[in-house]
Amino acid sequence: MTQDLPHFGMYIDGRNVPAESGEWFETFNPFNGQPWALVAKGSAADVDKAVEAAHRALTAGEWAEMTATKRGALMRRLGDLIAENSQSLSDIEVRDNGKLLAEINGQISYIPQWYYYYGGLADKIEGAVLPIDKPDSFVFLRQEPIGVVAAITPWNSPLFLTTWKLAPALAAGCTVVIKPSEHTSVSVLKLCELIEKAGFPKGVVNVVTGFGNEVGEPLVSHEKVAKIAFTGGEAGGVAVHSAAARSMKSVTLELGGKSPNIIFDDADLEEAVKGAISGIFAASGQTCIAGSRLLVQASIYDRILKRLVEFAGQAKLGDPMELSTQVGPVTTQQQYARVLDYIGIAKDEGAKCALGGGPSTDTDLKDGWFVQPTIFSNVTNTMRIAREEVFGPVLSVIPFETEDDAIRIANDSPYGLAAGVWTSDVRRMLKMSQKLQAGTIWINTYRAGSFMVPFGGVKRSGMGRENGQDAIREFMQTKSVWISTAAETPNPFVMR
Ligand code: NAD
Predict the structure, then answer these.
(1) What are the tens digits of pLDDT across the range 74-120?
(2) Is 451 among the domain residues?
(3) Domain match, 168 and 296 both
(4) 239 and 169 together in one domain
(5) Structural domain boundaries, residue 169
(6) Domain membership flag for residue 468
(7) Pairing outcome for strands 148-152 and 175-179
């Protein structure tokens, strides 16, 4: 391990600290496969310190006493600071994650909107006075923060996905312990500098870094954590959900997908091709919403396949820091190997490789984790390449005959995160939006998202929703308060 690399400690109780163990681990730049920084390697002892700090901040002191209006003001200040520091945050994300600077610039400059939106919402969550059927009673409802939140995030959009949890949790008045992916921990540690500068009291936001088994597991089962907001893979989601059940915690799970993107022959075909490309090759396919199953009506199948191959075949692979690059590396070496494995499985299963099908052959990119944009035709929906999440730039193109065929194939999946439909027929738009089993349906667009619009999955893609007004409720709980106005307590042996 190269000790002269920059070191990034954890952020606990308003202080930047090394791990209790004193250990560090390397974080890598996917463009050249080299470590570029060392991150504190946390354990249960660090988790305990962070949760205790969050619990103290929740139950007493400045944050616990703060009005929702003041919380909102702090959040808007944080949004401003992120906007002012967007370039340095973007640079870290590209170095740690390999995502294109062109895309990260857009993501980071959009993040402040979450803090403005939820900051504005913070003092608009109202309780209620209930009409009540019992005489001499006054009943009202309080909306209270649910408690300490564990926010566990994956590597594919580190700050963006952290924000989806952090902004509504802070607006609700919760305190938070963030556990970023072990592959992309640095940007959220930089965010903590801005959180401090914005004036958030110590202990309100904490970050523990390290691995799923060493940091994630003790965090999820900690008795003072009330809510887990998890984004990650299916295996991690199942483990987190089971641990949450054992310790009786509320959970939101944003998991993977195998989303169908469906092109009908009445669509604007050139736009549909662009939508298919953006659905799978943007972010090198490392998005939960990747449109990795492209369902194409048989009458236009050959035409669409030809255009896809032409279009994706011209995509420029390269340094993610260069704004002209269109496809960057895969984020981790492990994921790179996994994507290549899936390409092999697809070939063995009889899918026909129409484009790509291996590592990049560009010698300038030989040190990075680059996979060629890959398109498979002759795919059936029973093949593993059509059923399992690859999380890489690999598209399966599946033919269908009728609208009902498309619905049947699309819904024949364990997942249900998103679906795309390309058509010019309004009746079909409405029918598809009703029949497709997914949390988000895009019609004549793909991969659109906003802080205002709920997002989440059905089936094995998870539960609960992030974004939109309802997301703040995921971090609150209702308390019912009864006040008796009767002069006397009636028979104490009988329920009132
Ligand atoms: P992952 O499940 O391996 O890890 C996610 C996070 O969970 C990491 O911080 C990891 O350290 C932690 N973790 C792992 N096991 C844990 C455990 N037992 N207890 C507590 N924490 C644990 O996922 P990943 O490989 O980092 O990310 C890719 C996955 O995330 C893909 O499946 C992708 O579809 C999914 N994802 C979903 C969404 C969504 O919103 N639905 C968004 C982005 C990514």
Answers:
(1) 999 999 999 999 999 999 999 999 999 999 999 999 999 999 999 99
(2) no
(3) no
(4) yes
(5) 2-255+461-480
(6) yes
(7) parallel
Rounded mean pLDDT of 41-69? 98
- Nearest alpha carbon, ligand 1 atom 20: 216
Distance 287 CA to ligand 1 centre (A): 12
Q: How far apart are the first and last CA of the chain?
A: 68
Sheet containing 462-463: give its strands across.
15-17, 10-12, 205-207, 175-179, 148-152, 225-231, 250-254, 462-463
pTM value?
Answer: 0.96
- Domain of 276, CATH number, reads 3.40.309.10
> Are 406 and 475 within one domain?
no
pLDDT at 1 over 80: no
Return mean pLDDT, the chain.
Answer: 97
Respond yes or no: is residue 288 known to be catalytic: yes
Total of domains in the chain: 2
Specify the ligand 1 atom closest to the Cα of 466: 40
**490 has a pLDDT exceeding 90:** no
In sequence order, the 6+-apart residues with CB closer than 8 A to the CB of 94 are 100, 101, 104, 320, 321
Pocket test for ligand 1, best of 288, 387, 463, 467 (most atoms within 8 A of CB): 288
Residues whose beta carbon lies within 6 Å of some atom of ligand 1: 152-156, 161, 179, 181-182, 211-212, 216-217, 220, 231-233, 236, 239-240, 254-256, 288, 389, 391, 417, 457, 462
Give the bridge partners for 10, in sequence order. 17
* Residue 201 and residue 315 share a domain: no
Q: What is the pLDDT of residue 324?
A: 94
Does residue 397 register a pLDDT over 90?
Answer: yes
pLDDT grade for 435, boundaries at 50, 70 and 90: very high
